[in-house]
Amino acid sequence: MNDNISNANRILIIDLLYLGDLIFVTPFIRNLREKFPTAQIDMVVNSNFFDIMEENSYLDQVYAYNKNWSIKKSWKFARRLSQNNYELGLNLHGNWRTALLLKVINPAYTIGFGGKGRGIWLNQELLPAKNMHMVDVYLNFLAEIGFESIDNQGVELEINQEASKNMLNFLQEHDIKDKDRVVGLNTGGSWPTKQWTKEGFAQLGDRLEEELQAKVIFFGGPGDVERVNEIVAMMKTKPIIATGKTTLKELAALAARCNLFISGDTGPVHVAAAVGIPTIALFGPSDEQKYRPYGEKHKVIENGIDCRPCGHHHCPLEHHKCLEEISADDVLRAVMSKQ
């Protein structure tokens, strides 16, 4: 490890990726803090997910960057951070936006993911390791810059006490007892192709309650409300709907009460994994080798169709069989295997 890294007392991490990606970064942050126990370690994150990272006790300061800001406002934000005189800047995102922001923030020594010319302003450019989970890609970053001892204890997320109290009240209002088996269902997805069928979720929700006597809670943000309402209208049973009713901090607190969490490949399933809850993740276009919930408690369902993982936001073959051909029976079998 060179002296520019080992002697750093003010460190900045920048990563403007999405919720699941930020969960994948938590082991990186933990290992960085273990190596630099007294350093100032700050992080710039996507403002949409600031609430989740704000709870991370390994970070001293978390700064929210809004990707809709104008160039002028972005410049002012970066110039303000430059006054912190960071000695080490770590770019885990590696796109042009984060490259430009880090250049203006101007840490004394910078390391990050580059490629396609984006490492032009870095002192040390790295390329993401291939054919491994993103958690391991980020940990490999540390190995490449000279970390000799790296723990691989998995992702983690601290639960806000006020959010926990709010969700306890929510559960009591819906007559959830400590003895109840609670299953969380998350129906959304950042891409249309990541969403399992509405009919599948409706059938699964009914069968979880009728056959396993589970209490079913639907999760999701405001953008998922209409979809969940359509699913619930197809159901015979009456699930609990938390969709659009929780903050990110409350989502984590409510997920922590579940016995099992079922979702497509989207942020909330990684939040559930980070608070220690077993998950079942339905994978369509995205690559489970890189993006599956991290750890041994989790199961991935994918149907083995030749065209996946394609990485497309809309099915280029216009059939979406990768998820449409996964049945409620398939998911229920995975649930039973976790009994």
From TrEMBL:
- Tell me the enzyme class: transferase
- InterPro entries cross-referenced by the UniProt entry: Glyco_trans_9, LPS_LOS_Heptosyltrfase, RfaF
Biological processes, Gene Ontology terms: lipopolysaccharide core region biosynthetic process
Supply one GO molecular-function term: ADP-heptose-lipopolysaccharide heptosyltransferase activity
Q: Which reaction does it catalyse?
A: an L-alpha-D-Hep-(1->5)-[alpha-Kdo-(2->4)]-alpha-Kdo-(2->6)-lipid A + ADP-L-glycero-beta-D-manno-heptose = an L-alpha-D-Hep-(1->3)-L-alpha-D-Hep-(1->5)-[alpha-Kdo-(2->4)]-alpha-Kdo-(2->6)-lipid A + ADP + H(+)
The entry's family comment says: Belongs to the glycosyltransferase 9 family.
Annotated Gene Ontology cellular components are: cytosol
Q: Which PANTHER family match?
A: LIPOPOLYSACCHARIDE 1,2-N-ACETYLGLUCOSAMINETRANSFERASE-RELATED (PTHR30160:SF1), TETRAACYLDISACCHARIDE 4'-KINASE-RELATED (PTHR30160)
What domain of life is recorded for the organism? Bacteria
Matching CDD domains:
GT9_LPS_heptosyltransferase
Its keywords, alphabetically, are: Glycosyltransferase, Membrane, Transferase, Transmembrane, Transmembrane helix
Transmembrane intervals: 12-29
| The species this protein was found in | Orenia metallireducens
Q: What is this protein called?
A: lipopolysaccharide heptosyltransferase II
Enzyme Commission (EC) number: 2.4.99.24
Q: Name one Pfam family in it.
A: Glyco_transf_9
